[in-house]
Amino acid sequence: MRKPSNKANDPDLSDNYDFSNAVRGEFAKRSARGTSVTVLRFGMPSHMLVSAWKKYGKSETDTECGFGLNLGKHNRSQFFEGLESVEVEMDGVNHTFSLARGNFWTTCPELRDDDSEGTPIRDWLKKHRSLTWTKGRPPKAALVPIGEGHFRLMTELKS
Q1: What is this structure's pTM?
Q2: What domains are defined for the chain?
Q3: Percent of the chain with pLDDT over 70
């Protein structure tokens, strides 16, 4: 049996820490059940800010139109280069978006409902009460990379 170490004499351990009720291996058990680790390239942001987008919306309240997420050209270059499609997790459900639309790589860096099956972006915006907005003030969201070509859409970031 291993002799317990005397941490009280450890000069590197702050007096603020109290391990008297600690359970050895508590977090190791949780980690063994499965963890998700995302390794980002050095200098790469942990998320990108995206804004909602309407295709052919006739008014601010028009919801019978196409919807999308405007990524911005800088984010397209930084996060999507070399990809043909991406998976976006929205409220726990994965949706595949094709990046084969020619103008995605030139003038229109958007993920659109047209590039997926169904209307996942429209449905997500509706669920989060963001389907209509004042002209020039679209709702914003965070698109977080969680793996190569895999992202999670979030209404807010939790630190």
Answers
A1: 0.68
A2: 48-154 (2.40.330)
A3: 70
